[in-house]
Amino acid sequence: KESKGKTFYWSGEYEENMNNRRTLCLELGVFADFKPELTAKNRSTPFVMLGNITPELQMHVLEQMKDPVFVLADTMDFHIKGSPDALKKLLKKIDCLSLNDSEAKLLTGKENLLEAASRIHKMGPSTVIIKKGEYGAMLSYGGGIFLAPAYPLAKAVDPTGAGDTFAGGLMGYLASHAATKADVDKHLRKAILAGTVIASYCCEDFGFLKVAKLDKKMIRQRISDLEKMILF
Fold first, then answer.
1. DSSP3 helix / strand / coil % (the chain, rounded to 5)
2. pLDDT of 69-117, one tens digit each?
3. Strand pairing of 70-74 and 47-50?
4. What is the mean pLDDT of the chain?
């Protein structure tokens, strides 16, 4: 669908280590009136990733779905501050929330990430993923706590989009390996690694340039490398 007007615009500032970023400006543009309507085929998709849009739109998409196996939602500081009630309503309907460490602290008021994850569980999601930039990600779910390191890079060009790439890679892995809710917990840890290595490729160039060139061999190689790094 095409609409007249300005496109969605976001600008932010990263700290020197690129772990934390601060939103400077967010202009919705034509996105302010966007209301996604899914096709019949898409409504039957078993694995649903609600990308980083307003929680009201995320809920609108979710309400169109038919018995999904697993629903992951991503969010950011802008929505946590601007639409807290809508976000809390959404959290009661999803299986997993993915957000970075500063966002987890903002949402819960807890500085300790274990406490933050516990607080988010009480809001609804049975699975919580807290992204920690160069320090990897923390998974809190029915199988306990899993800490995955980031894939080490000699040079990171731009981390913008790494969180979306991480979530997309994770959900892609689950969609390929899990068929039921019971299967999801069995594959979540490996899915975290898949998301991690795909996000590492994202950081090596601007935008989607590096990710667009990926193939399964490249992804599997880095997953294997990462597994060897954490094996003891």
1. 45, 20, 35
2. 999 999 999 899 999 999 999 999 999 999 999 999 999 999 999 999 9
3. parallel
4. 92
Contacts of 228 (CB under 8 A, 6+ apart): none
Phi-psi region at 136: left, alpha or beta (left = phi > 0; alpha = psi -120 to 50): left
Query: CA-CA distance, 9 to 98, in Å (whole number)?
Result: 22
Condensed to tens digits (0 to 9), the pLDDT of residues 120-140 reads: 999 999 999 999 988 999 999
Spell out the CATH class of 9-230: alpha beta
Q: Please name the helix (run of DSSP H) or strand (run of DSSP E) that holds residue 147, with its range, or none.
A: strand 144-148
Instruction: Report the distance separating Cα 199 and Cα 67, nearest Å.
Output: 29
Q: Which of 158, 164, 183, 185 is catalytic?
A: 164
In angstroms, rounded to a whole number, what is the distance separating the alpha carbons of residues 212 and 31?
25
Let me know if 164 is a catalytic residue: yes
